[in-house]
Amino acid sequence: MLKRKMQVILMERFEKLGQMGQVVAVAPGYARNYLLPNKKAQRATKENLAQFETKKAQLEATNLKQRQEAEFVAKSMEGTQIVIIRQASEVGQLYGSVRNRDISEGLTKSGFTVDKSQVIIESPIKTLGIHTVFISLHPEVRAPIGVVIAQSEEEATMKVASAEETPAEEVA
């Protein structure tokens, strides 16, 4: 079966797709359902390429400003730890897992406005302990935060205190 691709011009940087202004081939459904309606890309026609070249400097300036704002927020997020209380078995296995929405709600309570789609969990969080997740503030800026998973507030306080006493190399 022949798989057709659609040529689009990216209007912003995508980690696994390409840089702003790059012409890439993507699945037609991805382009029609996500990239084009959200103005993250344009169809790669001669007119759109010419139009992009005239707007390129303005788009790059806007991107730079947004990146600087994201870097400022990332600096303020540095060292942030949120506590999530969950039920777990005796061996520390959670009944369920911690999701993006749980972390986003925890950050909102801490004073940061973060959408669940900005939370990047490298591997599922299914155990008690301290985990690191990343918040994507901009396509080029990620902020690491600590997520403390415990069965009670007291246990969370003890985990944070013991982690601060332990040198960084030993915390895994």
Explain what you see.
- The chain folds into two domains: 6-71, Ribosomal protein L9, N-terminal domain (Ribosomal Protein L9, domain 1, 3-Layer(aba) Sandwich), CATH 3.40.5.10; 78-165, Ribosomal protein L9, C-terminal domain (Ribosomal Protein L9, domain 2).
- The chain is elongated, with a radius of gyration of 21 Å.
- The longest helix is centred in the middle third of the chain and has 32 residues, at 46-77.
- It is α+β, with helices and mostly antiparallel strands and 172 residues long.
- The chain starts with 5 loop residues before the first strand and ends in a 7-residue tail after the last helix.
- Mean pLDDT is 87; it is low at 168-172.
- It has helices at residues 28-35, 46-77, 100-109, 153-165; strands spanning 6-10, 23-26, 41-43, 81-85, 93-98, 119-120, 125-127, 129-138, 141-150.
- A four-stranded mixed beta sheet has the order 4-9-8-6. It has a three-stranded antiparallel beta sheet with strand order 2-1-3.
- The protein is built from four helices and nine strands; from the N terminus they run E-E-H-E-H-E-E-H-E-E-E-E-H.
